Fold:
Amino acid sequence: MQARAIFPMIVALMLTACAGQQEAAMAPDQPPTPTPHVDRVRVELSTAFAPASTELPPGEATRLETFLDQAEVRPNDIAFVAARPGDPLAQARIGRIKSLLAMRGVGVQQVAPPSSGVAFNHVVLTVDRYVATAPACPDWSGSPATPHTNTPSSNFGCATATDFALMLDNPRDLVMGRTLAPADSLPAIDAVQRYHAGKVKPLLGGSSSSSSSQSGAAGAPTASAAPPASGQ
Structure:
């Protein structure tokens, strides 16, 4: 009796295992989700000082400003500067670069000279930037026909990922976040309290929505039925 009861259980377990293996074999591969790709790029500028001078010539100052604009260097960014070893004016020249970048709110950090070296009377300025690249869209690598696998198509999400990459203010945000600046919470608290007290401030150049709707309802003319068209 026991053998007869155990045999159906063994058969059921074997069938369940086979079914699971068949489902695993038939499970389709999930297409990768389109996402922007972020790369860190280092841009470099070699600024030339006049011999025995710590001042940048006007042309070099313009080159520096153009470089910062094209690299989209922003306040609170960090730039790296390196001078030629043995240059007696190195610190003064680096200080001049610091003062120019401080006007933009950009910090400066002195680093060792690059492997390519630094030319005479030059200071090398480098900035790290982050560049977002949109995914290769559209992606119709998968068959547009319904595969009956309950998986999204290969092109699903391509437009959203592309738009997201194009409208990023700072691609660095996809790599690391920003430190929140101090915020004043009193204006938000006051607005909530006025809302609960029914003392919402009117819009600039107009009135609040509640008062305008009430005045509009009071002054609105009474609608009358339109006369029937001729022939009816």
Q: What stands out?
A: Helices lie at 2-26, 58-70, 90-102, 158-166, 186-197, 209-219. The beta strands are 37-48, 78-83, 107-110, 122-133. Residues 21-27, 210-232 have pLDDT under 50 and may be disordered.
